[in-house]
Automatic annotation (TrEMBL):
Binding residue positions for substrate: 16-20, 28, 32, 60-62, 64, 66, 176, 182-184
InterPro entries found in the cross-reference section: UPP_synth-like, UPP_synth-like_CS, UPP_synth-like_sf
Record text on subunit structure and interactions: Homodimer.
EC annotation from Swiss-Prot or TrEMBL: 2.5.1.-
GO BP annotations listed: polyprenol biosynthetic process
Family annotation (NCBIfam families): uppS
Pfam families linked to this entry: Prenyltransf (PF01255)
Protein's name according to its UniProt entry: Isoprenyl transferase
SUPFAM superfamilies documented for this protein: Undecaprenyl diphosphate synthase (SSF64005)
CC cofactor note: Binds 2 magnesium ions per subunit.
Keyword Kinase part of the UniProt annotation: no
Signal peptide residue numbers: none
Organism this protein belongs to: Rhodoferax antarcticus ANT.BR
Gene3D superfamilies named among the record's database cross-references: Decaprenyl diphosphate synthase-like
Length: 242
């Protein structure tokens, strides 16, 4: 296919790992492990298609409510996968950024994050934002607090600058795998004008073809940002004579 209308920034709610594992009579953590493989494949595919920013929801502020065993399994997997993959990310020119509340994370997880970020800080091909212990409401609240601490008025430009994804433009396309049609507290502020694509494909099964379906769908949309179609086409507006 031709990639003439690719989004600059794709954000993904990587959902369905648990069900992928259940279907195979495997423990849920096996689904999360496969989810890491799917993320590696997806990052490569995004780069190959000219996408410059990939933001993924890896662990939400609400995921702490899961059974302790799953939470600790996810923490271990996260730290291990990071340490293991950093060299490859480096070779692939991926700049890794972690987005979320770092306060309640273990020293081991924090260390692996800091190492991953500093090792890849100068890469420029693809920015990979991993949202970990992230919530959209947390993000808006922390941004408001930052603006207040600076003694500035709470206006959109100041909040924009203080949001955790201020280093990248807003996502053009938000994909959710796993069949649910909700945001689950992901990018509440930044997705104001994103296009949405929902698929039943479970995250571990999300491959290049599934990504292309989402990009194809995106390419057919008209993003009006509040304007009319005619305005976007640059047509004269007959109603007001301009
Ligand atoms: C998404 O997969 C990954 C995380 C939330 C960490 P789930 O674990 O939510 O998978 P399902 O929704 O139970 O299938
Ligand atoms: C959203 O998935 C969070 C991540 C993918 C990290 P969940 O599986 O936690 O969402 P809900 O609970 O079904 O809304
Ligand atoms: Mg889920």
């Amino acid at each position: 296919m031709a990639y003439d209308h690719v989004p600059h920034h794709i954000a993904i709610v990587m959902d369905g790992n648990g069900r992928w594992a259940n279907k195979r009579f495997l423990p849920r953590i096996a689904g999360h492990r496969q989810g890491v493989e799917s993320l590696k494949r997806c990052a490569k595919a995004c780069d190959a298609r000219g996408i410059r920013v990939l933001t993924v929801f890896a662990f939400s502020s609400e995921n702490w409510k899961r059974p302790t065993e799953e939470v600790s399994g996810l923490m271990d997997l996260f730290a291990m996968a990071l340490t293991r993959e950093v060299k490859q990310l480096q070779a692939d020119g991926v700049q890794l950024r972690f987005v979320g509340d770092r306060r309640s994370l273990s020293p081991r997880v924090l260390r692996s994050m800091e190492e991953g970020e500093s090792a890849t800080a100068h890469n420029t091909r693809l920015t990979l934002n991993a949202c970990f212990n992230y919530g959209g409401r947390w993000d808006i609240a922390q941004a408001a607090q930052k603006v207040l601490d600076q003694g500035l008025p709470i206006i959109e430009t100041h909040l924009n600058r203080a949001m955790s994804l201020a280093h990248v433009p807003d996502p053009d396309l938000v994909i959710r795998t796993g069949g649910e049609h909700r945001l689950s507290n992901f990018l509440l502020w930044q997705a104001a004008y994103s296009e949405f694509f929902f698929t039943d494909v479970l995250w571990p099964d999300f491959d290049e073809a599934a990504l292309d379906l989402a990009i194809d769908s995106f390419a057919q949309r008209e993003r009006r940002f509040g304007m009319t179609s005619d305005q976007l086409d640059g047509e004269p507006n007959l109603a007001d004579g301009t």
